[in-house]
Write a structure and sequence with these properties.
329 residues, alpha/beta, 6-stranded parallel β-sheet, 6-stranded mixed β-sheet, 12 strands, 19% strand, binds beta-D-fucofuranose
Length: 329
């Protein structure tokens, strides 16, 4: 706001009022636009693509915004460089989807010194001073993990044989990885017969997961006895499915139970056809919530520090073709 006013004052007197009025089509004049510098993680997953689309659909010129969108290609150093560039450009707000939780103190301090509010979307940051960011909107990843674990408890209730689990993690140190991992770890510690066979890093991508899972399965002396593959996102689940089926493992309720997080349309389709046993929803449509934070700030209010989206779980019984078609992502 301050920067927009400053900019406007520098514009010549009469021109100022002309420039600030809406054009005949009813769209705000460009000097009135709120400038958003957005630091997106990358395009590693279907969830991420849907999340970027949700942001771009909301932060449009017609809605009064100029969106400067940066894709960090899954690298924190690229996100830090983008933030510094946005500070130089004197944007009005920085919207950050932080790739991992650590390592943000100095750059967020720089944003604060420049007077630019930082809004976190999706994942969170672990900083010494919580005042380094204004607000956060996203999912409760620990709760998502606990929903998956509750389903496993129901499915394997009364089982005396070991429940043999493969755990494929997302990007190390990201909030989504930390929360979903913590829920499984708690549960493995609480159930004597739950056995963690291996923990692999799938980095939230199908390609990396296919590779690490193929290597792991090929290293086994014979066909493994696997009950559950706990996949920390849909693209990990796709890579795991591909590797398992290629090596002759049937997937589904009578074979290897694949659990996934996100529940994007592709994963729900696999759930409906039975190859994925459980899809835990993680809602990527966070654009409207991020905009609400900015509108509150523009109106001089104080947004909630953390806002979590509503989510649910799906098994084949909860799904229909019609539901899949109506799904936005
Ligand atoms: O689950 C995964 C993505 O942080 C919620 O990141 C997000 C996760 C999501 O790449 O698909």
């Amino acid at each position: 706001m301050r920067r927009r006013v400053l900019f406007a004052l520098l514009t010549l007197g009469l021109l100022l009022s002309a420039a600030c009025t809406a054009d005949p089509a009813g769209e705000p004049a460009s000097e009135d636009l709120i400038v958003i510098g957005m630091c997106q993680v990358g395009a590693e997953s279907d969830w991420r693509v849907a999340n970027s689309e949700s942001m771009k659909a909301v932060f449009t010129e017609a809605n009064g915004y100029r969106l400067l969108f940066d894709d960090a290609r899954q690298k924190q150093e690229n996100q830090i460089t983008a933030i510094r560039k946005f500070i130089q450009q004197q944007v009005d707000y920085i919207v950050l989807m932080p790739i991992r939780e650590g390592g943000w103190d100095s750059v967020l301090q720089e944003a604060r010194e420049a007077g630019i509010p930082v809004i976190l979307v999706d994942r969170r940051v672990d900083v010494e001073d919580e005042a380094l960011y204004t607000a956060h909107v996203g999912s409760d990843f620990l709760e998502e993990g606990r929903r998956a674990v509750a389903w496993m408890e129901g499915t394997f209730q009364g089982a005396e044989d070991p429940v043999r689990i493969i755990h494929i993690q997302g990007t190390p140190g990201s909030t989504a990885q930390l929360g979903r991992t913590a829920a499984l770890e708690e549960a493995v510690a609480a159930h004597e017969n739950w056995e963690l066979l291996v923990r692999l890093d799938g980095d939230f991508t199908q390609a990396k997961t296919y590779e690490v899972m193929t290597d792991y399965l090929s290293s086994l002396p014979g066909p493994g006895d696997i009950d559950v593959v706990y996949c920390e996102n849909d693209n990990i689940a796709f890579g795991a499915l591909q590797a398992l089926e290629e090596q002759g493992y049937p997937c589904g309720r009578d074979g290897v139970n694949i659990i996934t997080f996100d529940a994007t349309r592709g994963a729900l389709a696999e759930c409906l056809n039975g190859r994925i046993s459980l899809a835990v929803e993680c809602n990527p449509l966070l654009g409207p919530l991020a905009e609400e934070v900015i509108r509150t700030l523009e109106a001089g209010g104080s947004p909630e520090k953390h806002r979590y989206v509503e989510e649910q779980i799906f098994t084949a019984e909860d799904l229909t073709e019609a539901l899949l078609e109506s799904r936005e992502y």
